[in-house]
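Progress note, sequence design subtask.
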């Protein structure tokens, strides 16, 4: 299940595509990922790790 991030919430775009990421929840993981299906840019953690995503996508 993919969740759009609130547009008011500051988060960096994918550094490759320039697209705003979305959040996906699996059993015990939260993944911030680029919605572009050919792009594998993502950050997976037990929390929605926005700092890690922003560090990876400066
Ligand atoms: Zn991307």
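Output:
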């Amino acid at each position: 299940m993919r969740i759009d991030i609130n547009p008011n919430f500051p988060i960096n775009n994918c550094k490759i595509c320039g697209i705003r990421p979305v959040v996906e929840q699996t059993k015990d993981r939260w993944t911030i990922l680029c919605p572009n299906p050919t792009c594998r840019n993502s950050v997976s953690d037990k929390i929605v790790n926005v700092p890690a995503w922003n560090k990876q996508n400066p």
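The chain is about 10% helix and 25% strand. Work on this subtask will continue into the next period as scheduled.
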